[in-house]
Amino acid sequence: MRLDKKKILFIAGILISIICSWLFARKIEWSQLSVALKDAKYIYIIPTLILIFVSHYLRAVRWSALIAPIKKVSVLNLFSATMIGFMANSVLPARIGEIIRPVMVAKKEKVKVTASFATAVMERSFDMLSIIIFASLLFFFLPTDTLQDKSVSMINHTEASAEVVKVEYVTEESKAEAPNTIKQLKKWSIVMAFFGVLAITSLFLLSLYPKKAGAVFEKLLFLFPHHLKDKLVNLLHSFISGLQVFDHKTKLLWIGVLSLVIWFFNATPIYVLCYAFDIKLSFAGACFVMVCLCLAIALPQAPGFIGVFHIAVQKTLIIFGVGLSSAQSFAIILWALSVIPITAVGLLFLWREGMSFGEISHYDEEVPEQL
Fold this sequence. Notes:
The chain has 371 residues and is mainly α. Helix content is 71%, strand content 4%. The protein has a two-stranded antiparallel sheet. It is globular and about 60 Å long.
């Protein structure tokens, strides 16, 4: 059954990536795209890459705080597992990197897989809360007059004494549609804020009264099929075991702040890279792109986020009045910087750990079936 589910998700992911890749590629004007890529200021790649790696290192720092109640683990070892996990997400199917990370740490540090997995669940829970907070605040305060007044941007270039003109259109349809999109997002921000408050409240209740809150949660699952209920209950127990960190309230505050800082550093590379393409985008706009991108890559898709990543960035930038060619070239470069260097460093750490793809590709078998 588990194998069948993996196959279904893999096929669905491939289909979604193919569709998104087609949607992205079908509107490419190759001459305009080549000019946009050629004229980009690639000096901004350096700070963009630095910021991307800083965000990944901060993830390792946060993980060290989460796993500390179980065992003190060096940040370097956790950074190694983090990079290998992200590399695996880029080259292996089914987002297996999310399982590889905690299993690798469990094996190396001689701790229980369930305990290590619980810290990974907590890590993703903080990520979800951070995204909800970012999105609800951002969508609520984002102005509806997002698009600039300019519907056409024209830049003249001279090449071999011939004038090459790049014309990027922001259609009237797009300009009319964008405010409606923002208004809808503002409505959703209220719903997201509600669930964010509900999630934070649930965290505190589970940390203060784990047995009582767990029992209430189990009763709320009476409508679910028996096999799904058992799986959710076991996941809850794994989650509660990761809540040991809540015994130290100052550490909880530190992890919460660090999670917000991590997402700040996830948005900053987008903001900095905009300068490479002369894209006028506010930091709030960069956060908006980040949130939409995170929602998109949460879908099943091919390894490396091919297609889904590109179309999400392109569509979001167009809302801000960015021309199609600039949006597409930006999406291509941002994807390359987010995937290729991370994959390369992950491979280096895999070699450093003396491990192989064949070994880590079976790490999902190390996690109990109910998880």
